[in-house]
């Protein structure tokens, strides 16, 4: 455990190089917190917390990946979007 604490700054620095590394650190931190907060809770509560953590991680991943899948120029790159905006402006 002492070696882990000594190497923690290096681990955080290495994980901060990518979004997936940050997401992994966040997942581990949330798991540790959830363990201490809900250790004596019923199984239904534990499963609910697990589902919430999973969906939060999945949502964060999808939110982070969404801009990479957008068409070039972002949302305004769509011809239909520009036409609708031009009509609204008058």
Polypeptide structure, described:
The protein has about 90 residues and is mainly α. It is about 80% helix and about 0% strand. Helix 2 packs antiparallel against helix 3. The longest helix has 27 residues. It is flat and about 65 Å long. The termini are far apart.
Category from helices, strands and their pairing? mainly alpha
Q: In whole angstroms, how far apart are the ends?
A: 66 Å
Please count the beta strands (DSSP E, at least 2 residues each).
0
- Unreliably modeled segments: none
Mean model confidence by pLDDT: 74
Task: Kindly report the oligomeric state of this protein.
Answer: single chain
The shape is: flat
Radius of gyration (Å)? 21 Å
Report the order of strands and helices.
Answer: HHHH
Number of helices: 4
Helical content band: over 70%
What profile does the largest beta sheet have? none
Q: Could you tell me the strand content as a percent range?
A: under 5%
Properties at a glance:
mainly alpha, 4 helices, flat, 0% strand, 90 residues
In short:
79% of the residues lie in helices and 0% in strands.
Structural topology:
Elements (H helix, E strand, L loop, with lengths): L1 H14 L3 H19 L5 H27 L9 H11 L1
Helix pairs in contact: 2-3
């Amino acid at each position: 455990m002492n070696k882990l604490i000594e190497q923690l700054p290096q681990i955080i620095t290495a994980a901060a190089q990518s979004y997936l590394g940050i997401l992994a650190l966040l997942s581990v931190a949330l798991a540790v917190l959830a363990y201490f907060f809900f250790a004596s809770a019923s199984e239904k509560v534990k499963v609910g917390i697990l589902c919430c953590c999973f969906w939060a991680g999945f949502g964060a991943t999808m939110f982070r990946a969404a801009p990479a899948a957008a068409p070039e120029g972002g949302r305004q790159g769509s011809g239909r979007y520009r036409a609708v905006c031009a009509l609204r402006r008058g």
